[in-house]
């Protein structure tokens, strides 16, 4: 019973995204749209991890002994989250530079590319 609100939320998000995906028209435009959403989500997640870290600092400085232990735990998990996200970001950049992939050129297999013009 508790999964119904999540189902309706996911269904509403999918219905809201349909016009954007239909307006993309080609595979490359759809990939660019997905890339835009993922880049925004990455920035949002890093910002959220930094806010969690500072929330742990506030709890550590303003609380008693129990709040200090909880604040230290929150700061630790905030630092771990920031480290993991930035490390993955660095690994992706390393792979891009190793395989000479620029962020402006999409990597699409030759069989999927759609050419416009006369067939």
Key features of this structure:
119 residues; mainly alpha; single chain
Write a structural description:
The protein is mainly α. It has one domain (11-98). Helix content is 76%, strand content 0%. It has helices at 3-22, 27-62, 65-98. The longest helix is centred in the middle third of the chain and has 36 residues, at 27-62. It is flat, with a radius of gyration of 21 Å.
Please indicate the percent range of residues in DSSP E strands (runs of 2 or more). under 5%
Major β-sheet annotation? none
The tally of strands reads: 0
Which structural class matches the secondary elements?
mainly alpha
Q: From the alpha-carbon coordinates, what is the Rg to the nearest angstrom?
A: 21 Å
Unreliable residue stretches: none
Helix content range of the residues, please? Answer: over 70%
What letter string, H or E per element, gives the SSE order? Answer: HHH
Q: What topology emerges from the helices and strands here?
A:
Elements: H1 3-22, H2 27-62, H3 65-98
Brief characterization of the structure:
Helices cover 76% and strands 0% of the residues. With 119 residues, the protein is mostly helical. The mean pLDDT is 78.
């Amino acid at each position: 019973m508790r999964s119904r609100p999540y189902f309706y939320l996911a269904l509403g998000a999918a219905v809201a995204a349909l016009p954007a995906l239909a307006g993309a028209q080609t595979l490359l435009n759809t990939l660019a749209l997905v890339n835009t959403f993922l880049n925004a989500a990455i920035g949002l997640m890093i910002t959220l991890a930094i806010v969690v870290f500072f929330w742990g600092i506030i709890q550590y400085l303003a609380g008693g002994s129990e709040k200090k232990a909880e604040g230290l735990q929150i700061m630790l998990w905030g630092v771990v989250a920031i480290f993991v996200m930035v490390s993955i970001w660095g690994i992706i950049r390393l792979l891009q530079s190793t395989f000479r992939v620029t962020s402006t050129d999409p990597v699409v297999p030759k069989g999927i590319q759609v050419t416009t013009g006369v067939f």
